[in-house]
């Protein structure tokens, strides 16, 4: 067993985990943050995507002990001050979700994507979300949500 400290959504959190505990399991079972969903458990679907030091990673492929001391942002940490993030607001406004299972991964992926590309083209949006799978939608509203999130982010004061 290993004692680790993760900065999760801005808060230091400690856990005692076996060497092979996946970050997704640590977040869900050890820390009680169930917003991160586990779909395929092979890193293909993207449902488990979280931000590691601001970059999207598949938490189902990452051992918790390898991220000791690092900053993790989960879907629970995207909202600040009780207010949904622009990405979360855009997905709700544009109906970019249906059952919601894939949504946490899309929200984390989109947050990082728009930080790097604040005004993406249609093709760039499709490429940006291509690592996340949704079984319910045809992706049209997800793509609209990404564009709307870009608009909302551009409207925010710097």
From TrEMBL:
Metabolic or biological pathway, per its Swiss-Prot or TrEMBL entry: Alkaloid degradation; nicotine degradation
Record's keyword terms, sorted: 2Fe-2S, Iron, Iron-sulfur, Metal-binding, Oxidoreductase
Location of the 2Fe-2S ferredoxin-type domain: 2-78
Pfam families: Fer2, Fer2_2
Domain of life: Bacteria
InterPro entries: 2Fe-2S-bd, 2Fe-2S-bd_dom_sf, 2Fe-2S_ferredoxin-like_sf, 2Fe-2S_ferredoxin-type, 2Fe2S_fd_BS, Beta-grasp_dom_sf, Diverse_Oxidoreductases
GO MF term list: 2 iron, 2 sulfur cluster binding; metal ion binding; oxidoreductase activity
Coiled coil: none
Protein name: (2Fe-2S)-binding protein
Organism this protein belongs to: Acrocarpospora pleiomorpha
